[in-house]
Amino acid sequence: MSASTFPAGFLWGGALAANQSEGGYLEGGKGLATVDMLPLGPERLPVKLGQQKRFTLRDDEFYPSHQAIDFYHRYKEDIALMAEMGFRVFRTSIAWSRLFPQGDELSPNAQGIAFYRDLFTECRRHGIEPLVTLCHFDVPMHLVIEYGSWRSRKMVDFFTHYARTCFTAFDGLVKYWLTFNEINILLHSPFSGAGLVFAEGENVEQVKYQATHHELIASALATKIAHEVNPANQVGCMLAGGNFYPWSCKPEDVWAALEKDRENLFFIDVQARGAYPAWTARLFREKGIQVAMEEGDDAILRHTVDFVSFSYYASRCASAEMNEQNSSAANVVKSLANPHVSRSEWGWGIDPLGLRITMNMMYDRYQKPLFLVENGLGARDEPDANGAINDDYRISYLREHILAMGEAIADGIPVIGYTTWGCIDLVAASTGEMSKRYGLVYVDRDDQGKGSLARSRKKSFWWYKKVIASNGADLD
Ligand code: BG6
Q1: Catalytic residues (predicted)?
Q2: What pLDDT, in 10s, does the model give residues 163-221?
Q3: Which residue ranges make up each domain of the chain?
Q4: Residue 217 class from Cβ within 10 Å (0-12 exposed, 13-18 middle, 19+ buried)?
């Protein structure tokens, strides 16, 4: 690959989310959010899936998001580390309940606005472009308890009011916006994805697709508002990406993989093309789903995004015989274990070519610029006798994926940038662990929340600095 594979001005950087890094969960007037209710331990999963209702905190549980890595107080130090690596872009999210503690207030919390103004100003001071997600797995708990979260159409008003507040308050500081992080995760992890909990015997699919419709309407309206507030704003959708491979060339397996891909891509089909795909009519009929729509919704959905962003950790695999027993949700979305790819310690497949395949499929389907806003390896890091972390495994993962992204660019795909996930160690979304680390910067904190929170540079820090300085040409 030549030095010119990555275009001039390519946005290299890293990504965090408010709920996994900030902490300060009730500071500065912030309200409780869904993610604050997710404990560490065996009950985390049923709560995340909406099977176990958790509307109040318990004294006997540990909640990793409450302090996280204390980014709320340490962001200046952290942004300086990113600047040292040469970051051109930094992705984070705004905690909705920091701006609207309950979610249905008319006026925002001034302390929340001040915090994010300071954060984005600090990025700009270092020449770093903020890339901001409006909703990364957090909904104010009051909206869950009072309105049933995204089941209710009222959420469209609350969200668009919040979005307009952000576009106005941070105008001139933020240009790149994402509406919902990994919007398709609503189907796979409904409480953490969208604040949904279910009553026994309820048609879960009905609830999920109704909530989906509300999010899609809210996303399209937010896109419209962003463009009205400032035509220079660039708004993206965000997919938990990774194509499904058919287990074999048996036609039934190929069909199963196509259906699984459609389930996830449905969201992006609407956000990037502006209408429900034709096949949804049959799907809804067969699942007994009736999505309530209002007059004018079709026109609203035609406000499509400017670019398509996505996360990529692994490809997936499906067969006609796939079931609860032979599949696993190691990577949140259920998949068969592909024997042709290796796996991380947490069972997530490692498949760089799958990234090129996914990017080509997405560009063929949407013809909008792509932005790879999450990619990385969750691994255990052990400091050596001198305290150094020689994370060659992470360097190798990132190198292979950057090479695959370069190939996709050489295939002719316009790509805006790349933000590696968890550029600083943070709380894992799936398990709540700190020991599942993604960072180029190490944070001294363990799964139970003990540690000094001190930051230190890993070997990958120096490697990534070189990658950025050479615009992706030097990956050694
Ligand atoms: C994505 C999320 O699903 O994957 C992040 O957008 C998450 O919030 C990341 O942290 C990695 O998953 P995990 O469970 O290893 O943290």
Answers
A1: 374
A2: 999 999 999 999 999 999 999 999 999 999 999 999 999 999 999 999 999 999 999 99
A3: 11-469
A4: buried
